[in-house]
Structure formats: C-alpha cells, structure tokens
Task: structure prediction
Amino acid sequence: MSARRLRLKIPLLLVAASLVAGLAWWKFGNGKPSTVATATATVQRASIENTVSALGKIGPKTYVDVGAQLSGQLESLSVEVGDRVEQGALLAQIDPRIYESRVAGDRARVDSLTAQLAERNASMELARINHNRNQAMAERNLIARDLLDTSAAQLKQAQAQVASVRAQLKEAQSTLDGDAANLGYARIYAPMSGTVVSISALEGQTLNANQITPTILRIADLDTMTVTAQVAEADIGRVHTDMPVYFTTLGQADRRWHGSVRQIQPTPDIVNEVVLYRVLVDVDNRDGVLLPDMTAQVFFVLAQARDVLTLPASAVTSEAEPKDKGFVQVPGPSGPTQRAVVTGLRNRERVEIVSGLAEGDSVLLPATDLSTTAKASESPPRRGLLGVRH
Result:
C-alpha cells in the first residue's frame, strides 16, 4: 500500500468516528431526559400518617412471683410451664412434717395450761371462800387477826397464780396459731388466675426462706399484654399518654395490634450513651397470639388521614411559606406545565393533596425517582428485621 492511499483513508476514519460519537450522545445523553419526562405518578386514594417508631418488648401487664414462706424440701410441684391455673389452686407443697410436729407440741402445751388454769381457778375459789369465812368470824372476834391476814394473803396468791397461768395459756395459743399458719404455708396456692410462665424450683430442692423469699414460679395474666417501648430522647417530647399506637411482631409483620399509651416512665435507660425512655402500651391478647418477651416494632401515631388523595412526596415541590402550598409538573401534549396544589399531611414517602388535582391525574416524577423506580423493579422489596420494607 502506498503512502498516498494511507493519507486518503485517515480523514475518512475521522469522519466515521465523529458520526459514531454523535449517535452515541444522541442516544445515551439527549435520549435520557426524554425517559425522565415520561416517568409519572398517579394521584391515588390512600391513608397517610406521621409516626414515631421505636423497638419494644412484650410482656404480661399483670403477673406475680409465687414464693415459699417456709424453709424446707419442695415435696411436690403440681403444675408445669404453660398450665392455666385458677385462683386458689394448689401449686406446690413443702415437706410439712417438722411443722406438723411443732403444731402438735403447741397444742399439747395449750391443753396442759388449760388444765392448769382450771386447777388454779379452783384453788382461787377455795381461798376466797376461806377468806370470806375468816372475815365473818373476825367481825365477831372469834378468830385472831393474824388468821385473817393469812387467808387474805392466800387469796391474793391464788389470784396471781390464775393470772400467771392465763398469760402462759395466751402465749401458748399465740405460738400454736403461728405454727399452724406456717403449716398452712407448706401448701402453696395460686394467688391469682393466669398462666404459669416460668418455674424456678424443682421437686426435691431445699428452699431457704430465712433471708429472702425463694421464688418457685411465676403466674401471669396473658389476656392483657404490655409493650415496653424504648423511645429516643429526640422523640419523647412528641409522645403523650392516651395517644394511639400500633405495633407489629417478627412472626406476623403484616398484622397490626392497636392500643394507646398508658404511661411514660420518667427515669431513662442509657444504652451506649443513648438516652431512651420507657413508654408502656397495653393491648388486648385474648386470642393468645402475643407471648412474653416477643420483640415489637412500635409506631406512635402523631397524625393520620384516611382515604385521602396522595402522591409520592418527591413529586410535590413545597414552598417555604406557606407550608401547605406547593406545585407539581403535569404532562401535556405541548410539554410539562407547572400546577399549584394545596397539601395536607406529609411523611417521608407520601403527601396528601387537598386541592389542585383529582383522583387519577398524572404528574411527572423527578429523575431520582425514575432511577429508584427502575432499581426497585429489578429486585422485589425485602423485609428488614421487624418487617419494615427497605
């Protein structure tokens, strides 16, 4: 090939490269805005709400730890975890033999003192009769004065002996009553109706109640549960008692349980230098689905609107003042046009349209929404730890 032919082909190659570059710019650069321009959203009716979210733990609202008031060996345990018990049902029994022997000894002492009291009363009555007779005889000077003094002293002595035995009998009766009560504590009954949720002692185990009350089991009323939510310091000022709340659980992320705030506890928990306040929410659980120690994703409803016109929040450009004014881009045959709208409730995802648009109207989405929509269409939404869509 000659140098002359090579010089002729170089300009042709440059022209071809320019044409390819121009076509690529038209297709991938200038063509992209036309794709953005066709990305639209439709005005739809939906419910919208503003919420404060927090994590929480589920537990029974009412429970009682059943303990032993006596020391001794746990002779029998009549229930298992999960059993439903009624108030007054027998739960467990501690070996009663030592307490039965004490009661028997106390009762024998009471019987003995009762007999002594009867004897002392008879002696006192005899002393009174003797003294009365000596008084009558002394008035007629039939006996010496020292005999009268002796009978008076004997009467007082008999009366003192009666009082002493009566006091001993009262003390013995008190001891008997106390030991009989302890014997009764050897049989442990349910103080409330509910479900046995935990057992802390085993049959044959020796319980020591001298210093602290040993816990045997816990009974809880599972018909009403309490969610203890930990609300961040930045959000606690927007939470108040009686405000509506709903929550979901790991096992049933699509079901909502509804309740209201019962209490905001003033003492915070500090976890990794983060200040969290405990907020208590009661919920009906008569169907028994909720169980102790479940994890809940809790939503405190600040404001809500039902069955209203909505758009994606990114489709509406809000004005600084007034905050309920904004505008959207509406597609048309001669290109997009700007339209003013009045907005209502807004959250991070959607905004309420009060006026300016009708149900079914289409508006343009910004380029960022188009790319987000495209990515979302490539892979289905996944659920996070607590059922929240990411």
